[in-house]
Design brief:
binds S-adenosyl-L-homocysteine, 7 helices, 254 residues, 13 strands, alpha/beta, 5-stranded mixed beta sheet, 26% strand
């Protein structure tokens, strides 16, 4: 019997955001691998084994899942959001490239999910309506100097920036440092969106500006969107504001 490895995106939290394809992949799996809080989102099924691991153990988890698949098992590895965005899909590819030759013959399927920046953007309007980029502020896997260089380049080139992993338990100063950096490139009125735990019961979405932004608003469950010079806040009586980036860029500097 030949196994399959399915790398499944669970979306941001609410089961409504789980795609039918992801749901079917979870149902078909004989073994589930993932970070414990993500596995907790998957309802238990009789006969399905589970292997929870810490979120810093992505490489070891990927290798374990590949070994299990090579034994003829239907394995699903779960990620929050989309597995291809700062998550398990790249860890699996790294292991296949570096691992034993027979791992290259395994059936591997990547099932997309709704990533955090799209879920947050949808709550507030269309902040990603024009050119944007996504950046992880975690310096576990890259030097902080590279993050600074990318923040400078992205803000300087007029991209809206979706910031994943704004704060990590080990490095609480990162986000404040990044905001100070962005203030060198962008006006104080630049809109910022803090989307916390979107799609979960403790969801919170706040709109502020670069000038007012406070690092205390961000934690490990927060996705931050930093507008460009073109991004706008539309106030509405009795309703939350809309944040959007117009589809057309007219200024070369914007
Ligand atoms: N693969 C995930 C991202 C993993 S990195 C995805 O596609 O969404 C983890 C970071 O994602 C968190 O630090 C936070 O910045 C963001 N994130 C994940 N789920 C979120 C949610 N429900 N609401 C807001 N941000 C979220």
């Amino acid at each position: 019997m030949s196994g399959t490895l399915t790398v499944v995106g669970l979306g941001p939290g609410d089961p409504r955001y789980l795609t039918p394809e992801a749901d079917a992949a979870l149902t078909d799996a004989q073994a589930l691998y993932g970070y414990a809080p993500y596995l907790d989102r998957v309802p238990p099924r009789a006969g399905q084994s589970r292997y929870a691991s810490d979120n810093r153990e992505e490489a070891a988890r990927a290798a374990a899942a590949l070994r299990h698949t090579a034994q003829g098992t239907h394995v699903a590895v779960v990620s929050g959001g989309d597995p291809g965005v700062f998550a398990m899909a790249a860890a699996i590819c790294e292991q296949i490239e570096a691992g034993p030759e027979n791992w290259r013959t395994l059936d591997v399927v990547f099932v997309p999910g709704i990533t955090a920046m799209l879920a947050v953007a949808a709550r507030i309007g269309a902040p990603l309506g024009h050119d944007f980029c996504a950046l992880s502020l975690s310096d576990n896997l890259k030097p902080w100097e590279l993050i600074e260089r990318r923040l400078d380049a992205a803000a300087g080139a007029g991209f809206v920036i979706a910031i994943y992993n704004p704060v990590s338990r080990a490095r609480p100063w990162q986000f404040g440092n990044a905001v100070a950096r962005l203030r060198q490139h962008l006006p104080p009125s630049t809109p910022m969106v803090f989307g916390r735990a979107v799609g979960r019961p403790d969801e919170r979405v706040d709109v502020t500006t670069l000038e007012e932004a406070d690092g205390k608003n961000a934690d490990m469950a927060t996705l931050v969107i930093v507008g460009s010079r073109a991004t706008r806040i539309v106030t509405r009586p009795g309703k939350p504001p809309l944040v959007y980036t117009p589809r057309a860029a007219v200024e070369v500097s914007a």
